[in-house]
Amino acid sequence: MSKPIVALMYDFDKTLCTKDMQEYGFIPALGIESETFWNEVNNLTDSEEMDNILAYMFLMVEKCKKKNLHITKGYFHELGQGIEFFDGVESWFERINKYGEEMGVSIEHYIVSSGIKEIIEGTSIAKYFKKIYACEFMYDKDGNIKWPKFAVNYTAKTQFLFRINKGVLTIDSKSANRLNCFTPEKKRRVPFRNMIYIGDGLTDVPCMKLVKSNGGQSIAVFDPKKSNDSAKDLLKANRVNHVVSAEYGLNSDLENRVKAIIKKIQAVEEMESYCK
User: Which of 27, 133, 139, 150 is most buried by its number of CB atoms within 10 A?
Assistant: First the structure.
């Protein structure tokens, strides 16, 4: 009999890393302040009634053209090497995987982010994710950016939860039918009750609410050096189950809660096995 699967799904910016990923290397290379870049993104969004994610992807390309900077997939991977994570993140995945083994469940980690996939792929933690769902670019024969390939806004994020739920992980021409066809609950690869979603703010609300409403657990994390008011507001609004500091170290509050959730999932799965 196969082990029950527990899916941990993470936002990336300000959830695993301490700020938006573009602010570590990309924006400084343009010679502007982060606030200036994001203000321009918002102004473009408003003036063109444009999707905010497509707006920032467009500005990334346009500003690099003006600076004569050639963006390639390799360049993005290099930027990923400069990402700074919250305390304990880099050892988190192996610790949680080990605990899953001890509890008799299989742990899978996923990224569901509005950031750039290629930057995430260049980080030290990329190897731990079964799948990284994030914004992507197409590249020409010389490896330079050609066109936005995939834009993941806050509502688009929810489709990936259903992909994980049904086991339709690959995005191709046939996956839409498989994703949208009715699948009996007992045949779904990862039940929503076996999901844990970890995010930091309003852009994660649709995913947080979806997981929580279907029996899973949603966790809002906050920078331990900043106010947790926004995260607390999510708890008050009944959108998340937990509000925890983004500290991933050994015996941290976050680790202890996630382990308790895994233990509960294992117990429910064991009980369900007697009802088949």
Answer: 133
| 216 closest CA partner among 40, 6, 76, 30 | 6
Q: Could you say which residues of the chain have pLDDT below 50?
A: none
CB-CB contact of 148 with 57 (8 Å) = yes
DSSP H helices, 126-203, are: 157-166, 175-180
Q: CA dist 128 to 68, 91, 122, Å?
A: 35, 10, 12
Cβ within 8 Å of residue 61, ≥6 positions away: 71, 145
Token representation of residue 192: 């929503």
d(CA 156, CA 207): 9
Residue found by looking up tokens 């308790």 in the block: 260
134, 114 Cβ separation under 8 angstroms: yes
pLDDT single digits (tens) 96-107: 999 999 999 999
For residue 189, what pLDDT is reported? 92
**pLDDT reported for residue 143:** 83
CA dihedral (129, 9, 88, 223) in degrees, to 10, reads 140
What span, in angstroms and rounded, lies between the C-alpha atoms of 210 and 244? 19
Say how far residue 183 (Cα) sits from the centre of its chain.
25
Within 13 Å of residue 267, how many CA atoms lie on the same side as its CB?
6
Give the list of residues 6+ apart from residue 35 with CB closer than 8 angstroms, or none: none
Task: Provide CB contacts within 8 A for 256, sequence distance 6+.
Answer: none
Phi, psi of 13 (to 5 degrees): -65, 125
